[in-house]
Amino acid sequence: LHDRDQQAHDALAADMLYRSVIGAEPPSHPELQAFLKGFRLPCRNGFNFPKVGYWFVIVLCIRLTVGQFIKSLDGGSERFLNIVWTAHISSFANLEPHLRIQLAPVTFRNQLQTAIPDGQTTFESLLTLFLKGTGIPCPRLLQRQRLILTAWSI
Amino acid sequence: VSPNDDESIRSLGEGIEREVIHTLLEQYRQRSSEWFTPRGDGHSTLTTSYPLAMAQFVPLLRIRNMAILGAAVAMSLVRGVSTTPLDPVLLHFFIHDCDLHSIHPGLLGEWHPTLKQTISDWVALGPDGDANTPTFRNFFINYYDLQVSFSSMTF
């Protein structure tokens, strides 16, 4: 990388960015074009996804939390992606600080104790156990259902 | 969702929709190396399986599944669900019609602090600076074919 002039030096900076984020191929590559075609979610009325950038931020705010993220409307896709990635739950630890499980009515608690008389099982412990778990809770039951459902794969 | 033609089972609703998108993306994640290429800072880009020179030979199935992946990613984002391992900066680039200028230093710094530093250092180095430092050497080994970059790339 000798004999660079200012223009080549700047061009290489842009190329370094491109290669390390997007890759070795240009956006015109058919595989990237195919992804983009799907990503734009083309609709019959010509409405497509990236153009509704601000709209889906609004949707997100309404769906997830209160007006806490309203400011994010100014942030465009930067803020949107930030919120979405931050909201990603990778383990129970992400969820735990936000959990508030209310006590079930006494009647239900008594019924649970009768059903599982081990003196430890509560609705709270069951729910926590479920949330801590990974994979399929009842594989055999699911397998039975799977036979009914049509299997499909890519 | 109605898996049987006789419509004996019918489920509708947001939960089903989310689950379908999730399951679809999981199928791609399970065969990660076919679809995602790891890049810096724990993020991935899309895998291209054929070089550009062979563009016309990319199998239709590959093109179709790539388009399905694109649609699944968009639908997941609309639902407010992240699409790891794909790089948020890559998605930002796609949302901005593949405009490299849309990746400004602030955004890059947020997701790729190391890369941002490397590029800032490169810009600061200037055309007369010595590019033969360990950081730049490592960078070019990782992202460029070093042989190409140091011998036949002439600037």
Estimated share of beta-strand residues of chain B: under 5%
The chain pair with the largest interface is: A-B, 60 and 78 residues
Computed over alpha carbons, the radius of gyration of chain B is: 20 Å
Q: Helical residue percent of chain B?
A: 40-55%
Distance between the termini of chain A: 44 Å
| Spans of at least 5 consecutive residues with low confidence of chain A | 57-73
Spatial gap, N to C terminus of chain B: 58 Å
Can you give a write-up of this model?
The complex is a heterodimer of chains A (154) and B (155). Chain A is mainly α and 154 residues long. In chain A, 54% of the residues lie in helices and 0% in strands. The radius of gyration of chain A is 25 Å and the shape is elongated. Chain B has 155 residues and is mainly α. Chain B has eight helices and two strands; from the N terminus they run ααββαααααα. Chain B has helices at residues 14-30, 32-35, 60-78, 88-95, 105-111, 113-125, 134-143, 146-152, and strands at residues 36-38, 44-46. Chain B has a two-stranded antiparallel sheet. In chain B, β1 and β2 (44-46) form a beta hairpin. The longest helix of chain B is centred in the middle third of the chain and has 19 residues, at 60-78. Residues 147-155 of chain B have low confidence and may be disordered. The interface between A and B is large, with 60 and 78 residues.
